[in-house]
Design brief:
It is built from 5 helices and 13 strands. It is an alpha+beta fold. It is 26% helix and 34% strand. The protein folds into 3 domains: 3-91, Ribosomal Protein L25, Chain P (Beta Barrel); 98-179, RNA Polymerase Alpha Subunit, Chain A, domain 2; 189-226. It starts with a strand and ends with a helix.
Length: 227
């Protein structure tokens, strides 16, 4: 089922007014197409972003025109309140392959973790792939249930992707493995290093702060002498 979103051409200026009224400004661009400044209803955009991410096609209808096929190329959020304040859409052609980074989702349970108390190490979080826009997966699952010992691991080559998707990431890269748990001695050594680092940081005084402290001390001593 395709994800649809409606937008309107944005007039010049008045971006803050749009945001205050519950809309989000954005821009649509792509190879060989004219840029379009748009805006859309915030709640509908939030739903589309949650469903589509940056790898699922959207059908974007601007002012009731024929929908464009777009990908969410970039989003900006308020640094404090985290709500959407701007979005970039990349218009794509369904007959031209594009490159994208697809997030990995780790599924299953590794016996090396469950039975040997090992620690799962995720070396790869995304795969770079090439595919037609409509074939881009929302995410790619990697089953870790086959990692039974600390010697076992899965490489990029072991990850199954959908039809029409070509993996560009190096196939020999270790994607996930399990390492033995740290010994008590190692944990104590790490704890000692952390405490030492904290002590060093706490003992550091910036030169300008030191000067201010010295000046304050002199003023305090002078007051005491007067008293």
């Amino acid at each position: 089922m395709s994800i649809k979103l409606e937008a309107k051409i944005r007039p010049k200026g008045g971006i803050n007014k749009l945001r205050n009224s519950g809309s989000v400004p954005g821009v649509v661009y792509g190879r060989g197409v004219k840029n379009s400044n748009v805006f859309m209803e915030k709640s509908e955009l939030e739903k589309a972003v949650e469903r589509a991410g940056e790898t699922t096609l959207l059908e974007l209808a601007i002012d009731d025109s024929k929908p464009k096929h777009v990908l969410i190329h970039d989003i900006q959020r308020d640094p404090v309140k985290d709500f959407l304040i701007h979005v970039d859409f990349l218009e794509v052609r369904l007959d031209q392959k594009i490159k994208a980074e697809i997030p990995l989702v780790f599924v299953g349970e590794a016996p090396a973790v469950k039975e040997l108390s090992g620690v799962l190490v995720r070396n790869v979080q995304h795969l770079e792939v090439e595919a037609l826009p409509q074939n881009l997966p929302h995410n790619i699952e990697i089953d870790i249930s086959g990692i039974k010992t600390f010697e076992d691991h899965l490489t990029v080559a072991d990850i199954k992707v959908g039809a029409g998707v070509r993996v560009l990431s190096p196939l020999s890269t270790i994607a996930v493995s399990v390492v033995p748990p740290r010994s008590e001695a190692e944990l104590e050594a790490i704890k000692g290093e952390v405490i030492e680092d904290i002590s060093k940081v706490e003992g550091v005084v910036k030169p300008e702060a030191s000067a201010e402290i010295q000046e304050s001390s002199k003023e305090t001593e002078a007051k005491k002498e007067k008293e």
